[in-house]
Amino acid sequence: MLQPQNVMDQQNQLYQSQRPLPETSSTSTDSTAQTGHATGGDWQEEVFQKIKFMKEMYLPELSEMYQKIATKLQQLDSLPQQPKSEQLEKLKMFRTILERLISVLQISKSSISPGLKDKLLLYEKQMVSVINTNRPRKPVSSLHQRTAPTAAPPT
């Protein structure tokens, strides 16, 4: 379950981008300026529908990965001899990333902020990357390994 460095870099980049945005004064901007839309709830509904779609697409696999990681961590914790701390830390970091991604998919409509709207594409890219990177490789079936039958020589 170790991840290639580029996935770790993406996850760290996304983690850095999740820092809270500086608060703006309500007297300096109105809701139209903050959201870019004249009607405040439209963007929120649009983002909610996108999250709903992403939830259907990605939550089952992310949840399964999370369960596997959590089980693996429980097993490692119960061992009398602790495994390499680097491997343990990577598993814990991966579990935290999965928790964060799953929490994005379970957010309520009223909790969707403009900041989440801006980061949704990054979250989706990370979900796809995590799923593709950690999806079990399907073994090549024996059908693909066979050569095409040769034609019988004419008689």
TrEMBL record:
Region (Disordered): 1-41, 134-155
N-terminal signal peptide: none
Single GO MF descriptor: transcription coactivator activity
InterPro entries, sorted: MED15a/b/c-like
Residue spans of biased composition, Polar residues class: 1-19
Protein name per UniProt: Mediator of RNA polymerase II transcription subunit 15a-like isoform X1
Name of the gene this protein is made from: LOC110760146
